[in-house]
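Postdoc handover notes: sequence design on the structure in folder B. Input tokens:
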């Protein structure tokens, strides 16, 4: 990677994050976080052409690796700092990890979130003991207010990623992975602000200098990618991987990544959706978009990882159930197992029945039917019928479409973007 900008060298440097720091963090947090399983996925290996090993960090109590860094930072506080309490700005997994372990240790935790934060995330944080303050419309607004409260109340700020203690805690993931599988060729790790990959790359280079470290960012939020490559890329949009949707990567983590990470790949939304769906279907495990980013990168770059022993971190499993349902249904549509056919009919008795007979003949199940008579460019006696249907595979749908067209129906297959 390119060297970091000289203006970023104030504060912690890569020298402040070593393998000894990660080992000390591992000893500190042992017994208080889950030593999650590391498992070989036979089916994903067959699909990708690589030997895939999965680290199930979505099985932590708060369903994310963030507990590790938050707990390490909490355990390094002085007695006075513990008494006063800590504060963070976060609307994600860091808020839950910090709140859970802070409450468990008797440390007051305040989390500042934007007013736009979904209610479920506020409730999850409060349910594990955090005190939530809603302020501003964006994360930057919340962060600024958290800094003000820190000064006013004498609290200790625990950054979600740009902190050597937090990164050292996150690095314990790699310690466990390389303990379970010392001969990994490559670690593919999601990047948001950079805390996880900073810790993991530190461990990997110390224990296995030949290992390749590859970061992954959502294509809509290529902040670290752009920063380290010295290019201008816009950040924004509704990404499935909101856990790594960071517009401003860390100053400290940028330096570590520039020094210790070999490459950063970008993945688009369809690949993220496919990876989430595959992990649920094949591994029977629920993973959020950020947690599936590593698998998405391997799927999207098969030649780059072919034949390699690849370690992937399923870094979180906090995904809204309705969103997960949408992801699964969209994946079925991309596979051709769900389809929407737009058929033009004459508005007369029996017209729809004749079409239904063809669906029956081809054993295609009808899920929903929508009629549109008014807002069309057809004559008054015409109508458009959208039929959502379910089939064994795309070929079965193609045979049905061919039969409908042979029967002189005008049929369009509504494509999924």
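Designed sequence:
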């Amino acid at each position: 990677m390119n060297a970091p900008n000289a203006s970023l060298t104030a504060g912690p440097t890569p020298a402040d994050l070593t393998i000894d720091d990660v080992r000390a963090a591992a000893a500190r947090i042992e017994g208080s976080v889950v030593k999650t399983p590391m498992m070989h996925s036979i089916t994903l290996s067959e699909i990708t052409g690589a030997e895939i090993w999965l680290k199930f960090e979505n099985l932590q109590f708060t369903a994310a690796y963030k507990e590790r860094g938050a707990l390490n930072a909490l355990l390094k506080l002085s007695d006075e700092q513990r008494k006063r309490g800590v504060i963070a700005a976060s609307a994600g997994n860091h808020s839950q990890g910090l709140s859970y372990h802070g409450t468990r240790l008797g440390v007051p935790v305040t989390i500042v979130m934007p007013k736009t934060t979904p209610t479920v995330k506020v409730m999850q944080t409060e349910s594990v003991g955090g005190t939530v303050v809603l302020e501003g419309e964006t994360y930057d607004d919340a962060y600024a207010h958290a800094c003000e409260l820190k000064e006013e109340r004498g609290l200790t700020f625990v950054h979600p990623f740009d902190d050597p203690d937090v990164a050292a805690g996150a690095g314990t993931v790699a310690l466990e992975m390389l303990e379970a599988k010392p001969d990994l060729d490559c670690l593919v790790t999601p990047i948001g602000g950079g805390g996880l990959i900073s810790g993991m790359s530190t461990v990997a280079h110390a224990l296995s200098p030949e290992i390749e470290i590859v970061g992954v960012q959502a294509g809509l939020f290529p902040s670290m990618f752009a920063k380290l490559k010295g290019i201008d890329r816009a950040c924004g949009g509704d990404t499935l991987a909101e856990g790594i949707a960071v517009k401003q990567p860390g100053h400290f983590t940028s330096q570590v990544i520039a020094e210790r990470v070999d490459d950063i790949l970008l993945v688009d939304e369809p690949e993220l959706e496919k990876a989430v769906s595959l992990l649920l279907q094949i591994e029977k495990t629920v993973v959020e978009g950020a947690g599936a980013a590593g698998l998405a990168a391997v799927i999207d770059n098969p030649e780059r990882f072919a034949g390699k022993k690849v370690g992937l971190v399923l870094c979180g499993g906090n995904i809204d159930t309705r969103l997960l349902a949408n992801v699964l249904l969209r994946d079925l549509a991309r596979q051709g197992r769900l389809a929407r056919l737009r058929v033009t009919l004459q508005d007369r008795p029996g017209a729809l029945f004749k079409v239904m007979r063809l669906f029956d003949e081809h054993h295609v199940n009808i899920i929903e039917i929508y009629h549109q008579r008014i807002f069309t460019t057809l004559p008054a006696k015409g109508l458009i019928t959208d039929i959502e249907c379910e089939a064994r595979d795309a070929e079965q749908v193609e045979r049905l479409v061919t039969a409908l067209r042979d029967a002189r129906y005008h049929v369009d297959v509504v494509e999924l973007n």
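Context for whoever picks this up: The first strand starts at residue 38 and ends at 41. Don't rerun without checking with the PI first.
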